[in-house]
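Note on ligand handling. Small-molecule inputs were canonicalized before submission; formal charges were left as drawn, and no protonation-state enumeration was performed. Where a ligand contained multiple stereocentres, the stereochemistry in the source SMILES was retained. For pyridoxal-5'-phosphate, this procedure yielded the string shown in the input block below.
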Amino acid sequence: VDAVLKALGPVALPRSAVVATIRRELADLRESGEIPALERIVRRVGEALDRLGRSRLQPVINGTGVVVHTNLGRAPMGAAVARRLGEIATQYSNLEISLDSGERGARAAYLEHNLALLCGAEGVTVTNNCAAALVLVLRHLTRGERREVVISRGELIQIGGGFRIPEILEASGAILREVGTTNRTTVDDYSRAIRRETALILKVHPSNFHMSGFVESAPTEAISRLARSRRLPLIEDLGSGAMVDTATLAGIEHEPTPSEVLRRGVDLVCFSGDKLMGGPQAGILAGKARLISRLKKESFYRALRCDKLVLAALETTVDHYLRGELDDIPVLRLLRTSNRELQERAERIVSALAGLPLEATMGTGNSCVGGGSLPRTEVASTIVRLRPLEMRLEELAERLRRATPPVIGQRSSGRLHLDLRTVFPGQDDALISVIRSVYQRSAL
Ligand SMILES: *Cc1c(COP(=O)(O)O)cnc(C)c1O
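Structure output:
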């Protein structure tokens, strides 16, 4: 171990992590019965350390055109949020103290006040993510005799990896009571399913796919009337949580907002903080004050609450909305960037890549919102297309991924596409030098 450690020279990882990696690699070699020369061991350990180092969280350049990309951290946050995070993270704060009385105060009081305004809701609270918010609601409302959740077969959806509505229901101790068919569910279907064991009616926004053809779903207003007449809560999992009318953003169809859903008679709506809203990971619950305050008293709530950094980031994001500072929310700024501006940047990038054994061209592309929102929407965009002349496309893509900062693109018909809508203008120079550096290394 010592010999390998010395031969490696300085490594930018904690020494104990380096030693553990060396031990593991040596054990693997011993097991395979191989005893290679020191030089080969050092190379192998070096590669293992590189892999470990790359798995550390680091900024990447998103050339995929998917604005809310779950694998790339969903919504990036703006400068004001970053400043607030710095302040709150490094000092003590009034997280749970009332500065008026000096007594213990309510956590997130300011956030809940302003978020309720933004959502047009009587009450609001926040949890770790939208999945947690849904579990909290289901656990609270399904108990004793009443455990059945009435839901349309057309809304038993899966969102990304590991989030399936039927499984979430089951994990929360609720019993699924499916109504209607995959493509058609009427108010009568809901009505017939309600009985003594019914705890609530759940609507789930089919956020990541679109059905067309012989399709019918019951209007929320009608389900709401039914729920009220049978004295049942109506809950909607909205998913994305657009806080502005998305139809006012170029080329994007309308996505229901929480306030719209509440106006249609839903008692409680939940959505993510880090999708279209453009904030930190959080689950937001908005609706009837009476329900919200009961949820906050639930013992399980304590296990799902957000930490102070999330609260600080969300507070700042909400205030941006209330002040109409939409360009301070990166997700919205990226979606609102004009194609003309993207074209000018693409031209500059393409000409800066001249001289490399690479065919770089500008093209038109389609960005999308992603993160399980607005599946039909494509936003016209501008891409830089790269076709390597002296290496395989796979290799170029891999080298760009392993560069600092890593660049993630999309392969399409023999080219690597980099969609500039999701590349911040301040990253253009880094993008150029990463592409150039990939070629410098290949020359060695
Ligand atoms: C994305 C999504 C969720 C999960 O949200 P998280 O914040 O990732 O937990 C739940 N429901 C719907 C409809 C969604 O689109």
